[in-house]
Amino acid sequence: MSRTTDSAVVFDFDGTLVLGADTDPAVADILMRHGARADRTALMEIIGATNSDWALVSACVPSPVREKAYAEILTASAGAAAASQCDVELAPMLALLHSRHRLFIVSGRDEASLRTILDRHHLGSYFEAIVAAAPGIPEKPDPAPLKDLLVQCSLPTDAITYVGDKDIDHAFATRAGVAFVGATWYVDRLTVDCTKVTRPAALPDFITQAFRARSAAV
Q1: What is the DSSP letter of 99?
Q2: Which end of the chain has the smaller Cβ count within 10 Å, N or C?
Q3: Strand 129-133 vs strand 179-183: parallel, antiparallel, or unpaired?
Q4: Where in the chain is the domain with CATH 3.40.50.1000?
């Protein structure tokens, strides 16, 4: 399959492309230090269910200290980047996909630590653009960040596949009107009924076949 400019694969980041170090305990400490009223157990549950650090501090700490708490969380994320892990099949998979489609990332991680991790694993050159979490950017499953990206890049929704590892990623793709593939090569976290790919090496051919099937159906 030759490369096209009107088809794209958009990836989630954490748990899909890489496994990041666990910063949840450090984030809980930061939130508690800045006035979070929930106890530690409740905070850990909130952290696990939230897909944006800014949304997290907005929900948990008083307004006057949100920016400071957010900055400390970003520092913790950056410091943990060196401990991130990447499947050995990721780079070859991305290289093959890049030869066929445009590639993007839409993630709940902040851009600085995301790019640090991409650089660490030599993956950054495959992606045309990254939409990362930041104040003012809606949190998944709100589809606005993905829809905005598609408009800016002149991409039709029927030529997009979003690859993620969690139920919220499936909801995100569904609300944006794009196809979804579950990435389960690290851990299978998906409880919804969806197509799953268990190895990075299998993803390019699966996506190629899916695009061909969609094109034939039109």
Answers
A1: T
A2: C
A3: unpaired
A4: 8-20+84-217
Q: How far is CA 45 from CA 28, 40, 141, 160, in A?
A: 10, 9, 18, 32
Q: SS3 of 160, please?
A: strand
Is the CATH number of domain 8-20+84-217 3.40.50.1000?
yes
The answer to whether the pTM exceeds 0.85 is yes
* Strand residue runs (E) in 28-186: 102-110, 129-133, 160-164, 179-183
DSSP 173-193: HHHHT-EEEEE-SS-----SS
